[in-house]
UniProtKB/TrEMBL annotation, chain A:
<keyword id="KW-0010">Activator</keyword>
<dbReference type="GO" id="GO:0003713">
    <property type="term" value="F:transcription coactivator activity"/>
</dbReference>
<keyword id="KW-0804">Transcription</keyword>
<dbReference type="InterPro" id="IPR013921">
    <property type="entry name" value="Mediator_Med20"/>
</dbReference>
<comment type="similarity">
    <text>Belongs to the Mediator complex subunit 20 family.</text>
</comment>
<comment type="function">
    <text>Component of the Mediator complex, a coactivator involved in the regulated transcription of nearly all RNA polymerase II-dependent genes. Mediator functions as a bridge to convey information from gene-specific regulatory proteins to the basal RNA polymerase II transcription machinery. Mediator is recruited to promoters by direct interactions with regulatory proteins and serves as a scaffold for the assembly of a functional preinitiation complex with RNA polymerase II and the general transcription factors.</text>
</comment>
<dbReference type="GO" id="GO:0016592">
    <property type="term" value="C:mediator complex"/>
</dbReference>
<keyword id="KW-0805">Transcription regulation</keyword>
<dbReference type="GO" id="GO:0006357">
    <property type="term" value="P:regulation of transcription by RNA polymerase II"/>
</dbReference>
From TrEMBL, chain B:
<comment type="similarity">
    <text>Belongs to the Mediator complex subunit 18 family.</text>
</comment>
<dbReference type="GO" id="GO:0006369">
    <property type="term" value="P:termination of RNA polymerase II transcription"/>
</dbReference>
<dbReference type="InterPro" id="IPR019095">
    <property type="entry name" value="Mediator_Med18"/>
</dbReference>
<keyword id="KW-0805">Transcription regulation</keyword>
<dbReference type="GO" id="GO:0070847">
    <property type="term" value="C:core mediator complex"/>
</dbReference>
<dbReference type="Pfam" id="PF09637">
    <property type="entry name" value="Med18"/>
</dbReference>
<keyword id="KW-0010">Activator</keyword>
<keyword id="KW-0539">Nucleus</keyword>
<comment type="function">
    <text>Component of the Mediator complex, a coactivator involved in the regulated transcription of nearly all RNA polymerase II-dependent genes. Mediator functions as a bridge to convey information from gene-specific regulatory proteins to the basal RNA polymerase II transcription machinery. Mediator is recruited to promoters by direct interactions with regulatory proteins and serves as a scaffold for the assembly of a functional preinitiation complex with RNA polymerase II and the general transcription factors.</text>
</comment>
């Protein structure tokens, strides 16, 4: 079964007076009331490595982000930031075995450790919804909601419908315009690397926050 | 083997890949992930749990290797013998053609990292050049051991990746040292892989010339760490090729 489709990602702000887990509970109740069923757990995680200062000319730095997504269990995504381009490499899981070999050249910073979004995966007809609790070294940072529509790969063609669906359980927190990352690609085929790029954007936002919203 | 220049000497240190070869290797791995992962999803467990269960010992990371060479004029006799000894060669013998680039990163605090990026050049019918597999290979220091160890042991990590790997690695800071092309045949016997190939170098762009008048012969097995018994199988097979080609542990320090 090839699972392809279009995904959109957004943060869900904590409900007034409730903690993170309690907010997730409210969302769980809303979505199961709509008829979704839990189909397991998902994890999207990201580890970051920084190039050694003397590695590149002009003392410029590159940041290597290595992400895993349980939706693509046999793949590892690597995104390089800091240069003119931001290439995404998709490799098989042995890439994880290769990373310790470059430990001196690309080190992981003690402060920017692993960040992950973890939670339940719900299926409802052609939609897959993932309600993730974002944590960084054990501390809760926020809630990320990913909604995939499996039947279409072109964002422009199904955004309206996905937006309506999201409103039905997320309420008015859903912006009516496409996420900025997708805006420039709305007529192109969507692929899992686009989902991962959006996750990285959100993770970087969470990292800059000091307190959970 | 005496007149080879530096790049050829280094090239003897690693085997090249082919479409079928990477598939053979990755098929074993994928069956641990791919097949079992999909079965488990239907049973209610998730890919996450599959990943957590997988332990390092199951991954084939060690290569047991023997190398030798045969003059072009005697190559056909060797191929004949291999066709008889190897598995499944009723149809066409499998050929491969790979272009391998050697990239290094560093040095930082005295450490450098060398990666071999291999691109399959033989385009099968129904596939275009942009679809061919690329692999990134890390090869560790070879361990020769003493007389009782039948083969060279070295760490080998082969990562399949998307074709933008060269752009990605050069953004990371890798620089290309040199490149070469390998063209030849591949045989399989059980877990063993036997390669007979010729190395080509390009002095000018796209002008590939053979490096020497012989073919390199390699016998290797990829196995998890500590499975030294497979080295015995490699040595026994090498005995059967004895009069035609002398396969031995190459001492890289003496090259």
């Amino acid at each position: 079964m090839i699972i392809m489709g279009f995904s959109t990602l957004q943060t869900f702000p904590l409900i007034e007076g409730l903690t993170g887990p309690q907010t997730l509970d409210v969302l769980h109740k809303r979505i199961t009331a709509l008829g979704a069923r839990v189909s397991g757990q998902f994890v999207v995680d990201c580890e970051t490595y920084f190039s050694a200062p003397s590695l590149l000319p002009g003392n410029s730095q590159r940041v290597l982000n290595v992400l895993h997504n349980t939706e693509e269990p046999a793949s590892v995504f690597a995104i390089l930031e800091g240069g003119a381009k931001q290439p995404v490499l998709v490799a098989d899981t042995l890439l994880d075995a290769l990373l310790p070999k470059m430990a001196v050249l690309y080190t992981s910073n003690k402060k920017q450790t692993r960040i992950e979004s973890k939670g339940n995966r719900y299926e409802m007809g052609d939609f897959v919804v993932k309600l993730g609790s974002v944590t960084m070294s054990g501390s809760f940072k926020g809630i990320l909601v990913e909604v995939c529509y499996l039947a279409c790969v072109v964002p422009a063609l199904c955004w309206e419908m996905v937006w309506e669906f999201m409103q039905s359980f997320l309420g008015s927190t859903v912006p009516s315009t496409l996420p900025p990352y997708i805006q420039s690609r709305q007529n192109a085929t969507f692929s899992p690397t686009d989902t991962i790029q959006m996750y990285l954007e959100k993770f970087n936002e969470f990292r800059k926050q000091t307190v959970a919203r | 083997m005496e007149d080879l220049d530096d790049s050829a000497k280094a090239s003897l240190g690693h085997s090249s890949g082919a479409l079928a070869r990477s598939a053979l290797r990755s098929a074993t791995r994928r069956n641990k992930h791919g097949a079992s992962a999909s079965v488990l999803i239907y049973n209610g467990a998730t890919p996450l749990e599959v990943r957590l269960e997988e332990d390092e010992e199951d991954i084939d990371l060690t290569e047991y290797l023997l190398q030798g060479s045969v003059l072009d004029s005697s190559k056909d006799v060797l191929i004949h013998r291999l066709r008889g000894l190897a598995d499944n060669v009723d149809e066409q013998v499998e050929t491969f053609q790979d272009r391998e680039r050697v990239l290094t990163l560093g040095p930082v605090s005295g450490q450098t990292l060398t990666l071999y990026v291999r691109q399959a050049m033989d385009v099968r019918p129904g596939m275009d050049q942009s679809d061919t597999p690329w692999t990134m290979r890390y090869i560790g220091q070879p361990e020769l051991g003493d007389k009782s160890r039948p083969t060279v042991l070295r760490n080998s990590i082969d990562v399949g990746c998307t074709p933008n790997v060269l752009e990605f690695l050069s953004e990371m800071g890798f620089k290309q040292d040199y490149e070469f092309m390998c063209k030849g045949l591949m045989f399989r016997k059980g877990r063993m892989k036997i390669l007979v190939y010729k190395v080509y170098k390009n002095k000018t762009a796209d002008n590939w010339e053979p490096l020497s008048m012989s073919h390199v012969v390699e016998l290797s097995v990829l196995a998890p760490q500590g499975h030294d018994a497979v080295a015995e199988d490699v040595r026994n097979f090498a005995e059967q090729l004895k009069p035609l080609v002398q396969l031995e542990k190459t001492d890289y320090r003496r090259l």
